[in-house]
């Protein structure tokens, strides 16, 4: 999938004809997937590339910052990395990321059509959702877009809501499920287990000392740390998880684990991740072949820099504050025991097809 950032990169060349859809695509849920499948079919019928146009930051993030009202910011389901990965998995040819700033927010609906859809993107077919609004003060709607398409020579189509068991699938519904810790319902809406991916980063290296054996080799609750690049994640707490990307075997099963997602109080004022949302994952087992693979890593025995994907399967509880390291160690040990019990009862979740 080709990724284009900003209108300036599009305006360097004459506009190429495209079939496109526009949205935030937070989570790329089953409703998004159905729309993207229709878009791809229409693009192939016309012999043009399929293109998803999205925004970063989310427009509501921008307006919340302008109003200084952080409570208006929607909880983020997916990082930009994961959104792009899911769009690629859906088979989209191109993704255009438009920085949502004051200039874009001030653009009238008519100017958005003329300057962005036609002038920069060369729209030949535009597919939108049933609640689509655009332009300054959200004055643009489907009727305006359809009339403009007839006048400017591009087709416009609208896709109605996608439902699962009679319930409308939306990013808001996914956020509600994740906030409630209902990972099964979130997976049903997404069409896959909820997951977060990214590069493994350095942490406090505290976990490896907690629960360390008498050998003193840092063999305690070592964690794989991923940054979630938004201050307000839709999910938070302690989860049963499985980890993809560590085992080098092509048909390797994911590694079972337990993870903390959130902003935990740092015991170290120099913590490189202080104040950041972090997903800290402890694998319940480290197969020998994984240890052998990591032995040849740039930092022998470590996974820093590797890209992994962590699927959050079941929520154990909300984040807890512990009064001492001993209490923290006991809490992590209990979480590990509960995660093992969950896997014993449910087994691993089947891997997604590539």
TrEMBL record:
GO molecular-function terms, A-Z: ATP binding; FMN adenylyltransferase activity; riboflavin kinase activity
Pfam families associated with the record: FAD_syn, Flavokinase
Domain of life: Bacteria
InterPro entries membership: FAD_synthase (IPR015864), Riboflavin_kinase (IPR023468), Riboflavin_kinase_bac (IPR002606), Riboflavin_kinase_bac/euk (IPR015865), Riboflavin_kinase_dom_sf (IPR023465), Rossmann-like_a/b/a_fold (IPR014729)
EC number(s) reported in the record: 2.7.1.26, 2.7.7.2
Pathway as given in its UniProt record: Cofactor biosynthesis; FMN biosynthesis; FMN from riboflavin (ATP route): step 1/1; Cofactor biosynthesis; FAD biosynthesis; FAD from FMN: step 1/1
Keywords from the named record: ATP-binding, FAD, Flavoprotein, FMN, Kinase, Multifunctional enzyme, Nucleotide-binding, Nucleotidyltransferase, Transferase
EC supergroup of this enzyme: transferase
The reaction(s) this protein catalyses: riboflavin + ATP = FMN + ADP + H(+); FMN + ATP + H(+) = FAD + diphosphate
Family: Belongs to the ribF family.
Biological function: Catalyzes the phosphorylation of riboflavin to FMN followed by the adenylation of FMN to FAD.
Protein name: Riboflavin biosynthesis protein
Gene source species: Tepidimonas thermarum
Name of the encoding gene: ribF
């Amino acid at each position: 999938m080709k990724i284009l950032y900003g209108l300036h990169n599009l305006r360097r060349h004459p506009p190429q004809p495209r079939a496109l859809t526009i949205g935030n695509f937070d989570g790329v849920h089953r409703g998004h997937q159905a729309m993207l499948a229709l878009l791809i079919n229409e693009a192939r019928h016309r012999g043009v590339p399929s293109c998803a146009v999205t925004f970063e930051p989310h427009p509501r993030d921008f307006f919340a910052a302008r109003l200084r009202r952080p409570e208006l910011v929607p909880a983020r389901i997916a990082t930009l990395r994961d959104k792009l990965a899911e769009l690629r998995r859906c088979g989209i040819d191109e993704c255009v990321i438009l920085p949502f700033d004051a200039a874009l927010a001030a653009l009238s609906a008519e100017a958005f059509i003329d300057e962005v859809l036609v002038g920069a993107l060369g729209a030949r077919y535009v597919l939108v959702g049933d609640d689509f609004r655009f332009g300054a003060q959200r004055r643009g709607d489907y009727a305006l877009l359809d009339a403009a398409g007839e006048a400017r020579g591009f087709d416009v189509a609208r896709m109605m809501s996608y439902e699962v068991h009679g319930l409308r699938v939306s990013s808001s519904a996914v956020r509600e499920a994740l906030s409630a810790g209902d990972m099964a319902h979130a997976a049903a809406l997404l069409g896959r287990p909820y997951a977060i991916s990214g590069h493994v980063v350095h942490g406090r290296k505290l976990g490896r000392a907690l629960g360390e054996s008498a050998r003193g080799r840092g063999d305690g609750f070592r964690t794989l740390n991923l940054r979630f690049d938004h201050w307000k994640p839709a999910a938070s707490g302690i989860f049963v998880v499985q980890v993809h990307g560590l085992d080098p075997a092509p048909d390797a099963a994911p590694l079972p684990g337990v993870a903390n997602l959130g902003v935990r109080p740092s015991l170290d004022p120099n913590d490189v991740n202080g104040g950041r949302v972090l997903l800290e994952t402890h694998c319940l087992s480290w197969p020998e072949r994984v240890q052998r693979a990591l032995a040849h890593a740039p930092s022998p025995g470590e996974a820093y820099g590797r890209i992994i994907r962590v699927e959050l399967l079941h929520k154990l509880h909300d984040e807890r504050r512990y009064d001492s390291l001993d209490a923290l160690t006991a809490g992590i040990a209990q979480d590990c025991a509960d995660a093992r019990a969950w896997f014993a009862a449910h087994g691993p979740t089947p891997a997604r097809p590539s």
